[in-house]
Protein 1
Amino acid sequence: MKLLLRRTTVLLIFSLLLVFGLMAFTARYFSHASTWVQYPANRHLYEDGKLVSSGTVYDRTGRVLVKTVDGAVRYHENQAVRTAVMHATGDPHGNVVTGAQVAFRDRLSGWNIVQGAFRSSGRADSGRDLTLTLDAELCAVAHRELGGRRGTVGVYNYETGEILCMVSTPSIDPANPPDVQADPDKYEGVYINRFLSAAYTPGSVFKTVTASAALDHLRGIGEKTYRCDGKMHIGEDVVTCPSAHGEVTLEQALARSCNVAFAQITLELGAGTLQKYADQAGFNSRLEVDGIKTTAGRVDVSGAAGADLAWAGIGQYTNTANPLNFMAYMGAIANDGVRVTPRILGDEGFFSTVTSPPGEKTRVLSADTAGKLGEMMRNNTISAYGEENFRGLELCAKSGTAQVGGGKRPHAWFAGFLDREDFPLAFVVVIENGGSGTGVAGPVAANVLQAAVAAK
Ligand SMILES: [Zn+2]
């Protein structure tokens, strides 16, 4: 009996070890399998160190953006198109980590956690296909409009989250990559997708955040006026406007981008309220575009007072904004205060490895506040930017000319949305050191949006 008990105990210990071992392996399998399977010694996917089994990447209209034929990567036949979408597809050396060839490698190689790496047709190019939400022709228009300047253009459907246009410059022709090292100035940050991964001083586009807080928190803000004499002394500092705007309402202050009025509004709101509305608008947090994490814009006014706080409410101070996140905030204003997370993957396969649900919805403003702010942004176009420059678009927008110091020209911003049921589009344009938001980024937005409306 004693012997039997001892044997049972030993058997039990071995059984437990086996169970724990299996559990540990399963956990590691689910967290690491994707990395293991991509290991170049895996003969299922690689031959002589080259990826042989990779699917085709399409745009929303079925254009082939990149495919692998007999181990060789082939890009779109048109140079302008493949250069415009280079940050979406990736480059031949995998330098663009947010590009599909790197970010969605699992899906393209045909690997998934349930079925493993299978080569169904037995051909060398039997990976899975991927359809992006992008319109490659629209991307080419945006790339052309940026005209060799550094920056980014993004357009998305604020109801479904589909990104139609995502362009970052400088870019390269992935089929004929130049010697980037030979001209570091021309190709500065060429592998960075500025739309997803940059953060810029926002300047006056940020006034849409301050205005939303004012609509909710300042009594009688609809009728109230603020006096602008062209400058305002706050302690040692001076907040200035290009000229004296006189007595302005919140709506007029937004349309004329009056710094003096917004300085007063920000000081009335206080740091806590401004911080809350900045956080709600998406600052200080990263969005996930089908698993690709964006860079967070920053607003930190804890401990800021006086002129520092006033400048923060005008979009200067230490504020930075990520272009995609800011575009999503524009989309939230358009979409009754609900932000739909932008996405780039068109087909959601059954074996999706994507962690965040596509088109995730977050309320960032009340429907009432979003409606009022949207009307003010519509008024910006009519009374300041010129309806004739955006004919038929029903454009609601805000410009920004963000001071960056160091003797450099300001960043030109133009962001907003179309108030059209047939084209629920929000957009952002940033041109680094481009100059005036309205004068430089505005026309780029106009031409890209007209192309987007014409494309359907
Ligand atoms: Zn002013």
Protein 2
Amino acid sequence: MIVVTGATGTVGSKIVQGLRERGESVRALLRDPAAAPAEWDAGVRPVAADFADPASLDAALAGADAVYLLVAVHPEMAAHERNVIDAAVRTGRGPRVVLHAAAGLEQRPEGVRFVGAHVSGFDHLVASGLPWTVLAPNGFYQNFLGMAAAVRAGRLTVPGGTGAVSYVDARDVADAAVEALTGEGHEGAIHTLTGPAALTHGEIAEQLGAAAGREVGYLAAEPAAALAGMLGAGWDPWRAEGMVELYGLYAAGLASAVAPDLAKLTGRPARSFAEFAAEHAAVLRGEGSG
Ligand SMILES: NC(=O)c1ccc[n+]([C@@H]2O[C@H](COP(=O)([O-])OP(=O)(O)OC[C@H]3O[C@@H](n4cnc5c(N)ncnc54)[C@H](OP(=O)(O)O)[C@@H]3O)[C@@H](O)[C@H]2O)c1
């Protein structure tokens, strides 16, 4: 039985689906089991658990053979990762833990809190003695769907400077995760998951525009202005500051490497951004959900 945390989210929901397609029995963690997606069949058991509540994690992880450890972005995310790892140790079964981290993990960049939280979780996992695998994806293509209104207004404004980023499709990350959870030979591996190319935000704006059927320009925001914009829009300050740090990494060109790991895991090339944008043209044009 495989436990999937973050099971209702962007990546986790696709992992649950992929595991079921392989006939795996899944226990899916979520805070409110009443909110379990209708598409989960009898092979998926929803279990109520909170990353902040060790007792709930003990109950959720009991009997697990493997755990997909994906925590949400949160000021306590490092502690949340530790809590799940500690609960996995307490099962006494030594389940394999596949840690969902972020690209850059191996470089351990200073002052990038989201990556730093995963580094801390990773160190805890290694020290736990549990068998482990790490998936370290770069930024998701899907993040741009949240900017569809700006795309329709003809402007992509992020503090990404002129750095190129090898963004990746979250669906490809989920496919790689299914392989890491069910395949052999991944123990002790850190798989960096990227798209097939590094694109500047100017190139991304162009490709979003091509899909949306209008010209879209890229405006490289100053970090302070970007932060003020996010705070003004009601973002949690910890998260907003973290986003500016992450874009700083992007602007410095430190997220541009293209890794072969995803294709090796899935057996097919990673989806391109142009393909993703074309598939989501209706959303980008404001015409529907898909
Ligand atoms: N977005 C990116 O570009 C990117 C790139 C690389 C790595 N990452 C990493 O990916 C992770 C986020 O993945 P995602 O975008 O798939 O997540 P997401 O869509 O934000 O979903 C978060 C999931 O976590 C669950 N959750 C939230 N708080 C919880 C809590 N206290 N206890 C138990 N479950 C909780 C949610 O479940 P319920 O709300 O249903 O309870 C949901 O299933 C982060 O670790 C981030 O650092 C993101």
